[in-house]
Amino acid sequence: MSESQGYESTRRLPVIEKADGGLGQSSSAAAYEPVHGADGAGRRFWSVRRVPAGIVAVLLLIGAGLFLYDIVAVRAHRPAMHWRRALARQLAERPLDDTWVLVGAAVVALLGVWLLLLAGTPGLRDVLRMRPAHTDVRAGLHRGAAATVLRDRAMEVAGVRSVRVRLGRRRADVRAVSHFRELDDVRADLDTVLGDAIRGLGLVRPPSLSVHVRRPGRKG
Questions:
Q1: Pairing state of beta strands 2-3 and 15-18?
Q2: Which residue from 127, 130, 150 is spatially nearest to 139, judged by alpha carbons?
Q3: CB-based burial, 120-138: b 16+ in 10 Å, e otherwise
């Protein structure tokens, strides 16, 4: 089972803890230094954002169509649409400090800020940049796939019963359950195996590794 969340770089800081209730635990940080990629490979992938763009395009098309129809109707000596007359009357009669005017202005401002954020941020946070083999090729790896690779490698370690991996952009948090062998030995093997696995992913910014190993809980 893999999940995603934020993470940050750490150095190796071995820690051995004993949890309450007599259940042993062993935890550690990564035993390797993250390798950063070249400057040309540091750009994140940009999201196409088809859904927000489609919604804005449809709303603009509907609004432009209504205004165009109303203008043509007025030019043809027909009365303007009721909604435009009502809107013009409300805008002329309501003061600027009216509650509904302030609420409408706040909604429009929030919508504008949201559109600016979408336009100025790359998105696609679930795609991790990989080191390119060629200058004209950009590669990315989904965090879910990377977490699955780490989980599968962790399950190959002797003594590991189950593994849960939470992989973020800067941190890989691995929590394993061991039903035999010493916890410190299992954790040391996981540090080595998962460190090699992270390096093998070929990421521009490999995440730091945090490993926690515990005994299975008592039944009943």
A1: unpaired
A2: 130
A3: eeeebebbbbbbbeeeeee
Dist. CA 98–CA 121, nearest whole Å:
35
| Structure confidence by residue, pLDDT tens digits, 51-101 | 888 888 999 999 999 889 888 888 888 888 888 888 888 878 888 888 888
Mean pLDDT value across residues 150-167:
94
The number of beta carbons lying within 10 Å of the beta carbon of residue 188 is 18
* CA triple 4-10-23, angle to 5 deg: 70
Q: Could you tell me what percent of the chain has a pLDDT over 90?
A: 36
Give the separation between CA 154 and CA 161, rounded to whole angstroms: 10
**Interhelix angle for 143-155 vs 183-200, to 10°?**
140
Region of 3 please: left (phi>0), alpha (psi -120 to 50) or beta.
Answer: beta
DSSP 3-43: E-----------EEEE-GGG-EEEEEE-SSPPPP--GGG-P
Look up residue 59 and give its two tokens: 């709303």
Instruction: In whole angstroms, give the CA distance from residue 113 to residue 104.
Output: 14
Chain center to CA of 192: 27
